[in-house]
Design brief:
With about 240 residues, the chain is an alpha+beta fold. It has 6 helices and 10 strands; from the N terminus they run αβαββαββββαααβββ.
C-alpha cells in the first residue's frame, strides 16, 4: 500500500518520507499520539488497512474493516496557542470535503461538527486531539480521519446499514482507497489553519446542520432549538424557544 500510495502522490509531496503504513492497528490516532510524544515531526502520517479500535468523538467506536476504507492520522506541530486552533476540526472537515470531491466527483456535507455525510448517511468522521506544553503552546495536534470507500450496504453491521454509506454506494463506482488516501493527504498537507475566516465561510457552506431543528443534550437534560450559526471557532450557535 505505501509504495502504491507514493506512486500516486506528487513526486514533491513534502510528507512522503514520514508516511507509515500498518496492515492493522488498534487506532491510528493512538499510534500517532505515541509517536508524537517521542518527537515525531510535523507531517508524520499513519495509515492503516484496518483499525479494530477506531475512535470517534466522545469515545464512540468507528467501524474500520480491512480494505474497505481509508483510516489515517496526521501529526501537526503548529506554533500557536490552543485558542488559535479551536477551528481545526472545521478546517479538516473542509479539507476532507475537497479530497472526497476530487477523488470521487461528489462533495459530502458536514454534520456539525465532525461527520462527513452523503444523502443524510454517514460517510466518515474526523477526530482531532491536542497536547499542550508547559509554556501553554500546542505541542502537537493529531487529525484522525476515517472514510468509507468500498463497502456495499450488506458489508456494514446491521445496526449501521440505514445510517452509513460509502463512496461505492454513493457514486455507484469503485473508488480505490489509495486514490482517496492520496487526495486526503494532499488536502491535509495544504490545509492553512491561519486562514480562519475563509475556512469558516467554507465550513458554513458545507454544514448541513445550520437551519435545522436540533436537540442539545447535557446529561439527562434535553433542550430543543434551532442551529442558526457558527462562531469564529466553529462552536454552534443555537436559538432556543425561550429566547
Amino acid at each position: 500500500m505505501k509504495n502504491t500510495l507514493l506512486s500516486v502522490l506528487p513526486k514533491d509531496f513534502p510528507w512522503a518520507d514520514t508516511i507509515i503504513y500498518l496492515d492493522t492497528v488498534d487506532s491510528t490516532n493512538t499510534y500517532a499520539k505515541a509517536l508524537a510524544k517521542t518527537g515525531a515531526p510535523h507531517g508524520t502520517c499513519v495509515l492503516a488497512g484496518a483499525q479494530p479500535g477506531g475512535r470517534g468523538r466522545l469515545g464512540r467506536h468507528f467501524s474500520s474493516p480491512a480494505g474497505q476504507g481509508v483510516y489515517l492520522s496526521v501529526i501537526l506541530r503548529p506554533e500557536c496557542k490552543p485558542a488559535d486552533l479551536m477551528h481545526l476540526t472545521c478546517c479538516a472537515g473542509v479539507a476532507m470535503c475537497d479530497a472526497v470531491e476530487k477523488a470521487s466527483g461528489i462533495r459530502p456535507q458536514i454534520k456539525w461538527i465532525n461527520d462527513l455525510v452523503v444523502n443524510n448517511q454517514k460517510l466518515g468522521g474526523i477526530l482531532t486531539e491536542l497536547s499542550v506544553n508547559s509554556a501553554g503552546f500546542v505541542d502537537y495536534a493529531i487529525v484522525g480521519i476515517g472514510i468509507n470507500c468500498c463497502q456495499q450496504t450488506e458489508d456494514f453491521p446491521e445496526e449501521l446499514q440505514e445510517i452509513a454509506t460509502s463512496l461505492a454506494i454513493a457514486t455507484g463506482n469503485r473508488i480505490l482507497p489509495v486514490t482517496l488516501a492520496s487526495r486526503m493527504l494532499q488536502a491535509l498537507c495544504h490545509m492553512d489553519i491561519t486562514q480562519k475566516k475563509s475556512v469558516m465561510q467554507r465550513y458554513k457552506a458545507d454544514c448541513l446542520t445550520l437551519g435545522q431543528d436540533i436537540v442539545v443534550l447535557r446529561g439527562e437534560e434535553k433542550r430543543y432549538g434551532k442551529a442558526v450559526d457558527l462562531d469564529d471557532d466553529g462552536s454552534l450557535i443555537v436559538a432556543f424557544s425561550d429566547g
